[in-house]
Every structure is written in structure tokens, then in C-alpha cells.
Amino acid sequence: METKDEHRSNDEFDAPWKDILESYFPEFLEFFLQEAFDGIDWERGFEFLDKELSRITRAASIGDRRMDKLVKVWRRDGVELWVLIHIEIQGDRKTNFAEGMYVYQYRAYDLYQVPVVGLAILADEEDGWRPTEFSYTLWGTRQSYQFTAIKLLDYSEYDLEQSTNPFAIVTLAHRQAKKTKHRSEDRYLEKRRLIRRLYQQGYSRQHVIDLFRFIDWVLHLPEELDDRLNEEIVVFEESQKMPYISSMERFLEKRGVKKGRREGKAEMLTSLLQCRFGMIPDWAGEKVTKADLPSLENWSLRIFDAQSLDDVFSDKE
């Protein structure tokens, strides 16, 4: 049975997909549309055209297009090019999906007179739904618009596990979110595995943090399992000497909402101290209980480098 914590609408996948796409757009195209990646002059940069997309979509009536992105890039031959991206999260077949891709493409061309490349990422679970074309024929006239559609289901788990592109992790996390929707314990195990894998891929610190946020969002867990996993992450980070994910901050933010920021930080600091040094003596517990917020924050920052409790609570900066 699906728990209340697990019951999250497909719309809630929009935010993490949008964030990770905007943060890693070159890697996104390299993973999903290699031909476009190879043809772009990345040294000239790229620009997300939010205002232009708003103008294009305002007069259309093809449904909710929150995940559309319009990006200006430059081809290697110097020609300006726009890339229209739509990520379809819904699991339901949409009869007018291809029509919507066509409408947005021709509106963009009509308004701005620039070539538009259409790319749809289909993140649903319906294997037989693969829209790639909108067309009609009438009295000798034929209109046809073809676009690239990438189905996340088509990627083999083995290939995803071998790839170091951030969107391999993104795809794995999204697919596991679908697969474990009603199985909290299985989701817990998959989420833990993917998080640990972040440290083994040689990603930068920022990559680890950004991908962790995506995994954490889409593989949402009930509170009890979430707390257990975060405690494991703290210990794992310490053992790897890589405090990248800032699990401590996540704990503090969540518990701070319930108990007040100072109380949440005090509770989290105590948990971290116990994970790092074992049983906490009374004198250390009393210092945490009576400390003000700045002191708790300062001690928390020291915990991964400290060799002893005295190092954590030292008055020396």
C-alpha cells in the first residue's frame, strides 16, 4: 500500500528535472542528443530564453508546458540555433503531445525566424507510447514535423551504471522512483546505493551535491527511513573523508521546522558527535544543550576535521 509520504504527484518531478537540466545543460545534450552536443560551439556559451518561451506559449492552448525549455546556442559554423526541450513526466498517453511540439516549434520560428530543434524526454512508463511526428494531408497538401523523442525506459541499467555522465544517475534515480513507488524498503536500499555511487564516479563536490539533491527529491522516503538513511550518509561521508552532501544541513533544516532552528541544530550535532566519537560524555552533552545558535553552527563545521571532542569544542578558531 502506498504511504502518505510516498504519494507525490508526477508534477513534483518537474522541479528537480528543471534544476538539474539548467545546471548541466551541456551534459544533458551530450547524454540525450550527442549529435547536437557535437555540433554546438560551447565556447560561445548558451542562454535560456525564458521570456521568449513565455511569448511563444502564451497564446497556445496545448496544455501545461511547465517543463519546456528554450535554449539559444551557436553552431560551430557560426549560425544561431534554438533548442526546444520538453520533458514529459506524466505516465498517461497524451493524444495531442506531438501537436503541441509542432505548435511550439512553428510559433518560435514565426516569431523569431530561427531554426528550432525539438527534443522530447519521455519519462513515463508506457513502453508503447513513442510520439515523434505530427502530420496531416489534405487535397495535395502535406504538413509534417518530426522531432527527437528519447524514452528513458530504453536505456539499459548496465549502460547507465557504466556511464559517468550526470544524467545517467538522473535516469537511474527517476526509473527507480517509478519502480519502487509502493515499496519503501526497496526504495531506501536503491536510494542508499545511488548516493554511495556518487562518491565512486569521480564527480566534483558540486556535482555530488547537485545529484544528491535530485536523488533525494525523486526518491522520497517516509520520515523514519529518511532519518535512518541520513545517519548512514553521515557515517559514510566521514569514512570516505568526503563531507560533500552536507547531510547535517538537511537534518537541521527539517528538524528546525518542527522544533526551532537552535533545537534542531543541537539535536543534529549530538547525532553527528555520536556517529563520530561514540558515547558522548555528560560535559559535552551539557555544552550542546546550553549553546547558542552560532556556537552550534561553528562546532558542526568542525566535526569532520576534528580528531577528538576537545577539538570540536575548542575556543581556538
Residue ranges: pLDDT <50 for 5 or more in a row?
1-11, 255-259
**Number of helical stretches of at least 4 residues:** 15
Structural class: alpha/beta
Radius of gyration: 24 Å
Strand proportion: 5-15%
Q: How many β-strand stretches?
A: 7
- General shape: elongated
- State the strand order across the main sheet: 1-2-3-4-7
N-end to C-end Cα span: 52 Å
User: Could you spell the SSE succession in H and E letters?
Assistant: HHHEHEEHEEEEHHHHHHHHHH
Mean pLDDT across residues = 81
Helix content: 40-55%
Largest sheet: 5 strands, mixed
If you had to describe this structure to a student in words, what would you say it looks like?
By secondary structure, the chain is α/β, with parallel strands linked by helices. Among the domains are: 33-154; 246-317, no CATH class. It is built from 15 helices and seven strands. The protein has helices at 14-23, 25-32, 34-39, 50-58, 97-112, 157-162, 166-179, 184-200, 205-218, 223-240, 247-259, 261-277, 282-290, 293-302, 309-313; strands at residues 47-48, 69-74, 80-88, 116-122, 133-138, 141-146, 148-151. The N and C termini lie far apart (52 Å).
